[in-house]
Amino acid sequence: MQENTYYVHDMACGGCLNSVTQSLLAIDGVKDVQANLQTKAVTIQFTNQPVNLDILASQVADAGYSLTRE
Ligand SMILES: [Cu+2]
């Protein structure tokens, strides 16, 4: 199992955090998501290999937020 940490700097409240978390959990290959409102860090655990950043970012963009590596 692998995990990577990303950032969603436009998460402003618990509602944002839930939207981002749910959108990522819907992706095939994403096993678990831990998002932190204070640091804006989103740590994603993957079932196998990390899912491509473009796929993650596009799914989060559909929810109205932007996911980056830093
Ligand atoms: Cu919010």
UniProtKB/TrEMBL annotation:
GO terms for molecular function: metal ion binding. Residues 2-68 form the HMA domain. SUPFAM superfamilies: HMA, heavy metal-associated domain. The keyword Metal-binding applies. InterPro entries: Heavy-metal-associated_CS (IPR017969), HMA_dom (IPR006121), HMA_dom_sf (IPR036163). Keywords: Metal-binding. The keyword Metal-binding applies. It comes from the Bacteria. This is Cation-transporting ATPase.
